[in-house]
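User: Here's a structure from my thesis project, written as structure tokens. My advisor, Dr. K., wants to see whether a designed sequence matches the one we expressed. Can you design one independently, without my sequence as a hint?
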């Protein structure tokens, strides 16, 4: 079955898109506003199911203040899913290096969501290439491998500068331009600010640890951004003053690069999982679910990934323990399977 109606959004307490049901299925830090699948002949399997709150207030709005961003981006997930229904080839950008972690490492938010999305796209026969920094490559490759795609999904590891190991950005860009994808999806990928430098949510310049993958996030490919803090690729679709007023250090961290569809989620991996379920439907729920999130989380931890907030190699993402993410993803799966 393929998704047919665009009323599926995952966003922190976001307002529903026009025409969506008024009730809301609250999922931790997100809101599931509904999805309709058809059987290929136009017969609706279900239109909307609202449910009891699941873990309302788990972390609340945290330190990020993204509720206004989520409201402004409402409907983005629906647009992203609709666009990917026609995908010919997709490039996925992910990886966020944390130089101040102990030890310095890539964070675990982003690669898991990217792996889920790659699973759904490959299930539909869509070629996928994942691009990341050399510094994040081990973690991204671990997620892709744990998802069973090691032989089916190419991973490019880009050098962060001219003297670092990894493939040169110019070579990756040339290959990208020679065989352009129909869609580019950025999941938890830090992007340039108004001053040029990418910055983490503490306002720190991380250009020396971040390859300029935004060079691949350009038209004519359809651009989908998934983020949770205001500093990720795609957040340039929102007014800079909104990010400045909502997010700590927002005036300096706001990414200036826009997307054609922006998904704001409580955790970026959730946005990746939601989009994967929207693209793949019930057919991929055996590979996109809470237990699989646990397994991928352990795999990236073994590869050295850290919680981006705790800055430690814990089995948590964005300061939320594994059980929270398992419950969130399983709730999405249950809704799709009904």
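Assistant: Designed independently from the structure alone:
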């Amino acid at each position: 079955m393929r998704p047919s109606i665009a009323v599926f959004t995952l966003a922190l307490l976001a307002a529903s898109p026009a025409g969506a049901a008024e009730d809301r299925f609250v999922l931790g830090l997100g809101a599931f506003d509904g999805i309709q699948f058809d059987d290929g002949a136009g017969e609706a399997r279900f239109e909307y199911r609202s449910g009891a709150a699941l873990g309302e207030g788990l972390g609340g709005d945290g330190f990020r203040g993204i509720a206004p961003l989520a409201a402004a981006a409402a409907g983005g997930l629906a647009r992203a899913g609709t666009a990917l229904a026609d995908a010919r080839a997709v490039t996925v950008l992910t990886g966020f290096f944390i130089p101040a972690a102990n030890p310095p490492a890539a964070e675990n938010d982003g690669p898991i969501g990217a792996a889920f999305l790659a699973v759904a796209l490959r299930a539909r026969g869509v070629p996928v290439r994942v691009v990341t920094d050399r510094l994040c490559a081990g973690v991204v490759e671990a997620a892709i491998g744990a998802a069973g795609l090691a032989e089916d999904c190419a991973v490019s590891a880009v050098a962060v500068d001219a003297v670092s190991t990894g493939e040169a950005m110019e070579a990756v860009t040339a290959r990208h331009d020679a065989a352009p994808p129909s869609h580019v999806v950025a999941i938890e990928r830090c992007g340039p600010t108004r001053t040029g430098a990418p910055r983490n949510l503490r306002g720190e310049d991380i250009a020396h640890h971040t390859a300029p993958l935004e060079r691949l996030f350009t038209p004519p490919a359809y651009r989908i951004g998934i983020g949770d803090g205001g500093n990720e690729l795609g957040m340039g679709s929102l007014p800079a003053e909104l990010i400045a007023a909502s997010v700590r250090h927002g005036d300096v961290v706001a990414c200036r690069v826009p997307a054609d569809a922006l998904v704001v989620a409580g955790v970026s991996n959730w946005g990746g999982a939601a989009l994967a379920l929207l693209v793949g439907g019930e057919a991929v729920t055996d590979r996109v679910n809470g237990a699989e999130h646990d397994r991928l989380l352990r795999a990236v931890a073994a590869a050295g990934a850290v919680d981006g907030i705790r800055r430690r190699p814990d089995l948590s993402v964005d300061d939320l323990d594994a059980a929270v993410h398992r419950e969130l993803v399983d709730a999405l799966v249950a809704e799709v399977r009904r």
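When you compare it with your expressed construct, this may help: Residues 1-63 have pLDDT under 50 and may be disordered.
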